[in-house]
Amino acid sequence: MDEEALMNVHDEDVTSQAGPSTIPAVTANDRPEGMSKNAMKRAAKQARMEELKPLKRAAEKARRRERQSALSKGYAEGTLTEEDKAIYEKRKQLERDRKASKRKFDNGTLNDGESWSGGVVLDLGFDDLMNEQEISSMTSQIAYCYSSNRTVTKPIKSIIHTSFSPSASPRLWTKMSDRNWHRWSRSVWWHQGVKELSAALSSSSPSDITFSSNPMEPLDAGHSIGDRAGEGEEKKEGINLENYLTGPKLPEGLKSGTHKLVYLSADAEEELTTLSEDEVYVIGGIVDRNRYKNLCQNKAELLGIRTARLPIGQFIDNLPTRKVLTVNQVFDILLQYIQQNDWRKAFETVIPQRKYHESKKAKHAHNAQLQQQQQQTGSSGIQADVPCQASDNEDPVDVDTGLDSAEIIVQNERT
Ligand code: SAH
């Protein structure tokens, strides 16, 4: 299919243009024992959706490019309305700013004051709690965090990814292998977990801790991290990716005895009022559509780490106080707060207003349906969670991370 044809493609067209599915039709005999007919149908549908994804992405990209070139043409010919002209100019300015920030970020030419010297941790110690699709989504979210950090004026100095190795997170490790993570600036990768990070930050003896001036400086050869699940898979173009795991060296700028860990959790009692450059904020690296309640709150309590939630309820009228967001949304909110020093603006930049209404509307519709069912069946009914999908992030494809437009899954909300 050429690009022009793709431009006119909508979801239904994608389905019809994709041709016959390569996924075999399911018959009663194929059904594994114990799997219901409906579950089988759902699995087949899911597989078909996966098959269509690249086509949908290509169509969306082509549509976006077409919109942009129409704007460019109109701008050059002076035929745009005032509104479109303003949109075009704003986009161009944004693009210039992003390019300048990326250049500085990648060249490492940011001065001290230009980056935020606190830290953010993505705790990747939940590999075994996610299904394959959630692992994929998690991989994209990790890449989105890096990508966001590259494009802001004041990036976070270090993003530490803990529990990342063939043995600590085997499926994430494999899925991340085509993301070039070992070349990401300001990103540090540890086999060790949050527990060891907590120990490194609170160690009183400086001789216990080693510092890495270059967070991406590979460790000495022979560095061992225990069991080696997936041996061989971690080799990329002759590089042993395990050499890029730098724990338990603290990245430059993070100081033992000064920097304190705060585990972020929607279930925390404490609400964040501000962010401090003496703190390191941990985000639980899991996509679970809220299957595991209190997961990160409990983990932090066990490790004796302070917990806090984002001040959503205070600033956003239409969202519940304990709304559970995705990893990259939480990361982006922190990043935006660092840029704008204003929670409301940070929330509004990351979660467009429209989404609150959509999610509220979806919930109302769902509740109405439940009520109706209850009236019909006389049952008490359980308040089910309402997942809300958003896919309108129009970030351009990022060559370093292999990212296409974002597919953000808003995790379910606590009531
Ligand atoms: N069921 C998981 C939810 C994970 S959501 C749990 O109980 O922890 C992924 C991560 O995003 C969380 O671990 C938390 O670190 C962060 N997060 C999501 N919503 C948040 C909120 N409202 N306030 C603070 N952190 C939040």
Automatic annotation (TrEMBL):
InterPro entries xrefs: MT_TRM10-typ, MT_TRM10-typ_sf, tRNA_m1G_MeTrfase_euk
Region span, Disordered: 1-76, 205-242, 358-404
Record lineage: Eukaryota, Fungi, Dikarya, Basidiomycota, Agaricomycotina
GO cellular component annotations of the record: nucleus
Enzyme class: transferase
Protein name as catalogued: tRNA (guanine(9)-N1)-methyltransferase
Coiled coil: none
Record-linked CDD domains: SPOUT_Trm10-like
Keywords: Methyltransferase, S-adenosyl-L-methionine, Transferase
EC number(s) given by UniProt: 2.1.1.221
Basic and acidic residues: compositionally biased ranges: 47-63, 225-239
Species for this entry: Kwoniella dejecticola CBS 10117
Reaction(s) catalysed by this chain's protein: guanosine(9) in tRNA + S-adenosyl-L-methionine = N(1)-methylguanosine(9) in tRNA + S-adenosyl-L-homocysteine + H(+)
Gene Ontology terms, MF aspect: tRNA (guanosine(9)-N1)-methyltransferase activity; tRNA binding
